[in-house]
Amino acid sequence: MLSKFQHIRLLIFLIVILGIPYTLRLIDYRLEPFPSIILPFGSNKTALGDEVRLPSNEIYGYTMDGQLKKLEKSRFLQNIRVGYFDYLYEDRFGLRDFNGHSFRTTRLGIPVKLKSKISETDIQATKIWIRQRLLEQGCTDSVLILKKDLIVIPRNGTYYEETTLMNDTILDLY
Amino acid sequence: MIRFLTSIDLALKRFFDRVELSTRVSTRQLALFRIFFGALLLSYFLPSWSWLNEVPPGFFDPQFLSFAYLTDDFLPGSVYVFFDVVVIILLLLITLGIYTRSCLLLLFLLSSMLYSYSFSFGKVDHYTNLFLFTYPVLGFTNSGTQFALRKDQALPARTQTISLIVMGIIIAFGYFNAGLAKCLSWIDFDSNTSGFLDWVYYCFFNSENQYLLAPYVLKVPGYLFEPLDYLAALFEVSGFFFLLKGRKYWLFYLTVASIFHLTNLLVLNLSFALNVLCYGIFLVSPVLTLLYQKYRNSYADKVKYFIYAAMIMAVFKITVLLTDLPVYNYHNYAPFIYFEHFMDFLLWSFTIVCGVILLIRLPKIAKIDKR
C-alpha cells in the first residue's frame, strides 16, 4: 500500500530533512542541527538616533613597559575567522568555568545539559597558545584582559571608540 | 482510510508536478554541470580542515546536534590532513566522471562530519548549508552517466526528477526560514529602526568585514535603508511563490538571488559564493549546454588537456598539503581576502549573466534539450 503513496512519502522525507531541524532552530538556536537547511535568521534591528552606540568586545594586554595595549583580533585568532571572536570571547577563550554550560531553551524552556569538553590539560595548552599570541603583539604573557568598549557612530558615519573601564575580566595565564 | 490517503497524495502530486516544471534539468545539462562543479571546487572552493591543527583545544565548543559533539576534542591533526587528501581525490574523480555517484555521496558524509569541527567555536556558519546538500542531490541524478570516463549506471528518470524537485524546495525553504523572522521583525513601518543597518554594523565592527563598499555605507543616512528591510524580507519569503509559478519565474528568482548575494558581497562582504554551485544546477547548467553546442566540434580535441589540467591541479593541491607551504582554504585564509572577493564577484556576475541569458533564450535551450 505504501509504495502507492509516493508523494506522501516525499512529503514525509521533506518534513524530516527540513521541518524537524527548523523546529529545533525555532526552539533554540543552540539546538540547530548541522548539517541542515537553515539560513541566517538575523532579524535584529538597530535603533537610529542622533548617534548609534554599539558595545564591542575587545582584548587587551600589557606591554613590556606596563602600558595597556589593544590587541588586533584577526592577528590574535590567526587562522580562525574574526566572525567567531565574540563567541570565543563569551567562552573566555576556553578558560571559563564550564559549570554554566547547561541551559533552558528560549522557547518551551526545555532543560539541556551539555557535556564539558574542556579538560585541565586542554586549559593549560590553551593558556600556552594565548601567551604566544600576546608575545607576538608585543605584550607580556601574564594576563589577557577582556573589555567591553563602545563604538559611537554619529549621523555623518565617522565613528569613534570609547573605552569603558567597566566589565573588565582578567584572565590569568599562569 | 485509503481513499483519504489517495486524496492527499493527489493534492501533493499537483504541488510536486508544479515544482517539477520549474526544476527540470536534462541529464546532459547535469553532466556538464558536474564537470563545472568539480573543477570549481577543486581549483577554488577546495575545502580544507588541516588548519584546525593549530587551534588550541580550549576553543572546542561544538554544536550540540552535530557530529563533532560526539567527540571530546578536535580530531588528531593527521586525520584532517588525511581527509583533505581524500577530498581532493574524490573531487578529481567527480570532475572526470569516475564513480561519480559514490564520490558525491561520500563527500556529503565527509563534509558534514568535518565541517562540524570547523564550526566548533560556539556557532554554526551558514555559508555551507545549501551547498552541502548539492552533493546528494547531484548524487541521485544521472550526472555521472555522460561526459564521464567511467559512466555510472543510470538511475530511473523519476529519481532524477525527484532529486531536482528536492533541490528546488531546499533553496526555497532555506530562503523562507531566513526571511520569515525578518518579515516579523523588520516590516515595522518605523524609519527609526533598521534591520539592514544592524547587519551592516555587525559585519563591519564584529566580523571586521571592512572592504569594497562597506566603509561608504556607514555614511549613508539610516532612514534611506528602510525600503531595503522590506525588500530583503519579502524577497526571502517569496521563494515558494516563484518555484510554483513556473520555470521562467523560478529562474528569475534565482537570478535575483544572485544579485542579492552580489550586493551583500559589495556592502557586507558576505559572499555565500558556494551557493553558485547550488543555484548553478538551474542557472548555469543550461548555459553550459549552449556553449557545448557551439564548440562541440572541437570538444574531443580538448578533453585530454582538460583531464591533464584537472590531474595536475589535484597533484599540486596534495603536494601543498603534504609540505610546509601555506594551504589556501576558501573562507578561512586571510591573506587572500582580496583575491577571494574578486573571485566571488566574478562568480556571482557570471551566474547573473547566465540567468539573464536563460531568461532571454529559454525556448532555444528547451529545443536543444529535446534533440
3D structure, described in words:
Chain B: This is Vitamin K-dependent gamma-carboxylase. Chain B: Keywords: Membrane, Transmembrane, Transmembrane helix. Chain B: It comes from Pricia antarctica. Helix content of chain A is 29%, strand content 24%. Chain A has 2 domains: 1-44, no CATH class; 51-172, no CATH class. Chain A contains 4 helices and 8 strands, in the order αβββααββαβββ. Chain A is extended, with a radius of gyration of 22 Å. Chain A is of the alpha+beta class. The mean pLDDT of chain A is 89. With 371 residues, chain B is an all-alpha fold. Chain B has one domain (17-370). Helix content of chain B is 69%, strand content 1%. The longest helix of chain B is centred in the last third of the chain and has 38 residues, at 285-322. The mean pLDDT of chain B is 93. The chains are: A alpha+beta (174), B mainly alpha (371). The interface between A and B is large, with 77 and 83 residues.
What is the strand and helix layout of this fold?
The complex is a heterodimer of chains A (about 170) and B (about 375).
Chain A lengths: L5 H22 L18 E2 L3 E12 L5 E3 L2 H5 L7 H6 L11 E3 L6 E3 L6 H17 L6 E12 L5 E3 L6 E4 L2
Antiparallel strand pairs in A: 2-3, 2-6, 4-5, 6-7, 6-8
Chain B lengths: L1 H21 L4 H19 L31 H20 L3 H19 L10 H4 L1 H6 L17 H30 L6 E2 H12 L7 H4 L8 H12 L1 H7 L1 H22 L7 H8 L1 H38 L14 H34 L1
Helix pairs in contact in B: 1-7, 2-3, 2-14, 3-4, 3-14, 7-10, 11-12, 12-13, 12-15, 13-15, 14-15
Short description:
Chain B: This is Vitamin K-dependent gamma-carboxylase. Chain A has 174 residues and is α+β, with helices and mostly antiparallel strands.
Overall form of chain B? globular
Along the chain, the helix and strand elements of chain B come as: HHHHHHHEHHHHHHHH
Tell me the fraction of residues in β-strands of chain B, as a range: under 5%
- What is the average of the pLDDT values of chain A? 89
Q: Please count the helical segments of chain B.
A: 15
Low-confidence stretches of chain B: none
Order of helices and strands of chain A: HEEEHHEEHEEE
Q: What is the averaged pLDDT score of chain B? A: 93
Ends distance of chain B:
45 Å
Largest binding interface between chains? A-B, 77 and 83 residues
Structural class designation of chain B: mainly alpha
Radius of gyration of chain B: 22 Å
Keywords (chain B): Membrane, Transmembrane, Transmembrane helix
Organism (chain B): Pricia antarctica
Protein name (chain B): Vitamin K-dependent gamma-carboxylase
Transmembrane segments (chain B): 31-52, 74-96, 103-121, 127-149, 161-187, 227-244, 251-268, 274-293, 305-325, 345-362
